[in-house]
Amino acid sequence: MSVITAASRVTLHFELSLEDGQIVDSNFSRSPASFIFGDGSLLPDFESALLGMSVGQEASFIMSPEKAFGVHNESNIQRMPRSQFSMDLEEGMVVSFADMSKNELPGVIAEIGEKEVVVDFNHPLASRSLTFRVQIIAIEDAA
């Protein structure tokens, strides 16, 4: 298979970085990652950026917040009674909660008051533009 299509298994090196160049995640110094197009491993717009690329090709894409992890949503910030937490809390700490369907939902402790705690359920990279750098290592037919 010569180029990435919606029916590809892709092996690649990748790097995500912020606007200031700070690297959020990278596997360039480790083993490459593999995924099957459409399996949910990558965000849809990240996958779409790879369409048509070939083995050995390198590219960088600037992903707007809307194409990456979304924009910050005020309705994802919740106030909860301090009594609901049985642990020592620190601002910035990530705590795991369960949603209505019992799925794990991470929240960041944004503020700790005497009576209530403010928890931010937005993705930590919400409202951030990211640079997605890739190097294609292998392309196979996923079928």
Automatic annotation (TrEMBL):
Residues 7-81 form the PPIase FKBP-type domain. GO terms for molecular function: peptidyl-prolyl cis-trans isomerase activity. It catalyses: [protein]-peptidylproline (omega=180) = [protein]-peptidylproline (omega=0). The keyword Protein biosynthesis does not apply. Pfam families: FKBP_C (PF00254). Its EC number is 5.2.1.8. Keywords: Isomerase, Rotamase. The keyword Isomerase applies. Belongs to the FKBP-type PPIase family. This is Peptidyl-prolyl cis-trans isomerase. It comes from Marinomonas polaris DSM 16579.
